[in-house]
UniProtKB/TrEMBL annotation:
UniProt xrefs under SUPFAM superfamilies: Radical SAM enzymes
Name of encoding gene: miaB
GO molecular function, one term: 4 iron, 4 sulfur cluster binding
Any one GO cellular component localisation term in the record: cytosol
Descriptive protein name: tRNA-2-methylthio-N(6)-dimethylallyladenosine synthase
Organism expressing this protein natively: Vescimonas fastidiosa
InterPro entries: Elp3/MiaA/NifB-like_rSAM (IPR006638), Methylthiotransferase (IPR005839), Methylthiotransferase_CS (IPR020612), Methylthiotransferase_N (IPR013848), Methylthiotransferase_N_sf (IPR038135), MiaB_methiolase (IPR006463), rSAM (IPR007197), rSAM_horseshoe (IPR023404)
UniProt record similarity statement: Belongs to the methylthiotransferase family. MiaB subfamily.
Key words, A-Z: 4Fe-4S, Cytoplasm, Iron, Iron-sulfur, Metal-binding, Plasmid, S-adenosyl-L-methionine, Transferase, tRNA processing
């Protein structure tokens, strides 16, 4: 892709800022501050996108609410990764017919990955007529212009063309809190794993310029953010489209030079592009957390090939063995799909065997969900759901034992944790994260919120650690 076509010109993004001001003037004409509700489904990339959508809404003069009845503008930022994710959104959309009946001027917007699927856009067009604006992730940067069209034409607007995608710099943003921040470093995916919808809805891989990312992270560090997570569907292929070429490890090295007391995390990584250079860089860095989310998907070479994941079990093991050698304190997590079309019980148990062998700190486990338009959706899938569920339960039980065992090893240790949450549990009123990203329920004073503290771990279970401030 030609970078000139990929990066939107300042004139183009500037036009959107003008639309924000035009809408702000329209809102001011009504004499009351409009309220917006943004609901986010799906992965961190969507969370990051929603923060930009909120930034644009704030520039239009909106304040925010969680009450759908009071909202003037509702935005559902959706996920298409599994059927279940889409069903949830349709449930929410259905409920919004009632709020719109009570408030016919309410504007309802559907955006995100689902909106980019042609079948979904068509279904919304014909059967969800209370939805005013539909736009995919590729069109997010022109949300102000699209919303202006809804206001001035009083008609429904659809912007779901299949584009390969752009990069928009300088979009406004509303971050949540002052502790954790998300920074997208690239967009889209070129991998076309045979089960996955993401490349169809997020377009081709494109990397932001390194200096733009460095400037954003520097600003966040200066503002006192303590954890900055770099986002991309496959951060390990960062920079393949840049000239001169830089890779993800180069980007980490640049970011590591920044001053401040903060941790860098990143997700997700594809094993096919993970490198020893990356692990060496992590090991030598000051800021990069020794935490790696490296989705393996399956422990069976035949299934990996059918998934179009171009690595095998041996290569995966080689990668993590090296990563653990250079970072003995590495916290390793992964994603696994059970019940891929044609997978046999023996093959699923190969995956369970891999899990036993590797001893991940935690796993995100999924039962295969056919996504229309992907190659896997057309494959023969003879195994009944109940059978897949049994394999899935075996996998989860195996991992739960491992997580509980690994967590128990923390008891008695003192770890530096970022205290960043309050809970409803009076026994453990605070929560935090270790450098490796493990959740810790805490006893201690609220004044520690947003800060690093040494925490003595006193107890643990499968999902979390428990501790007190020292
Ligand atoms: N880009 C990331 C994954 C993003 S999607 C990567 O490649 O690692 C997050 C996870 O959802 C995937 O790792 C996979 O385990 C799961 N997933 C994706 N498509 C799925 C499908 N059709 N059915 C079930 N799980 C799926
Ligand atoms: Fe989907 Fe594969 Fe791309 Fe991850 S790398 S987003 S699983 S196609
Ligand atoms: Fe879902 Fe889109 Fe993320 S499909 S997982 S929100 S990239």
């Amino acid at each position: 892709m030609d970078r000139k076509q990929v990066i939107l010109s300042p004139e183009e993004t500037g036009r959107q800022r003008e639309y924000e001001q035009k809408i702000r003037a329209l809102h001011q004409g009504r004499g009351r501050t409009p309220l917006a509700l943004v609901d986010t489904f799906g992965c961190q990339q969507n969370v990051a996108d929603s923060q930009h959508i909120m930034g644009m809404l704030r520039a239009m003069g909106c304040e925010f609410t969680r009450d759908a009845d009071r909202a003037d503008i509702i935005v559902l930022n959706t996920c298409a990764i599994r059927d279940h994710a889409e069903k949830r959104v349709f449930g929410n959309l259905g409920a919004l017919t009632h709020t719109k009946k009570k408030n016919p001027d309410q504007i309802i917007c559907l955006c995100g990955c689902m909106a980019q699927r042609p079948e979904i856009a068509e279904k919304v067009r014909t059967s969800y007529r209370h939805v005013d604006l539909v736009f995919g992730p590729q069109a997010m940067w022109k949300f102000p212009e699209l919303l202006y069209r809804v206001y001035t034409r009083r008609g429904r607007v659809f912007s779901v063309e299949d584009e390969s995608g752009t990069i928009a710099e300088g979009m406004p943003i509303v971050r949540e809190g002052h502790t954790r921040a998300w920074v997208s470093i690239m967009y889209g995916c070129n991998n076309f794993c045979s089960y996955c919808i993401v490349p169809y809805v997020r377009g081709r891989e494109r990397s932001r310029d390194m200096d733009k990312i460095v400037a954003e992270v520097r600003e966040l560090a200066d503002q006192g953010f303590k954890e900055i997570t770099l986002l991309g569907q496959n951060v390990n292929s960062y920079g393949k489209d840049l000239e001169p070429r830089h890779d993800f490890a180069d980007l980490l090295r640049e970011l590591d030079k920044l001053d401040g007391d903060f941790l860098l995390r990143f997700m997700s990584s594809q094993p096919k592009d993970a490198s020893f250079k990356l692990f060496d860089t992590m090991a030598q860095s000051r800021h990069v957390a020794h935490q790696l989310h490296l989705p393996v998907q399956s422990g069976c070479d035949r299934v990996l090939r059918a998934m179009n994941r171009p690595y095998d079990r041996a290569r995966y093991l080689e990668l993590i063995n090296y990563a653990r050698k250079v970072m003995p304190d590495l916290v390793l997590t992964s994603d696994i799909i059970i019940g891929f079309p044609g997978e046999t019980e023996a093959e699923a148990m190969e995956t369970v065997g891999l899990v036993r062998q590797v001893e991940f700190d935690a796993l995100f486990t999924f039962i295969f969900s056919p996504r229309p338009g992907t190659p896997a959706a057309k494959m023969d899938d003879p195994v009944p759901r109940a059978e897949k569920q049994k394999w899935f339960d075996t996998l989860c039980a195996t991992q739960n034992d491992i997580s509980a065992r690994l967590h128990a090893r923390y008891v008695g240790k003192t770890l530096r944790c970022l205290v960043d949450g309050e809970t409803d549990d009076a026994r453990w009123p605070l929560s935090g994260r270790t450098a490796g990203g493990r959740l810790v329920h805490l006893v201690g004073d609220k004044s520690a919120l947003g800060q690093y503290r040494d925490i003595k771990i006193t107890d643990s279970n499968t999902w979390a650690l428990f501790g007190e401030m020292v």
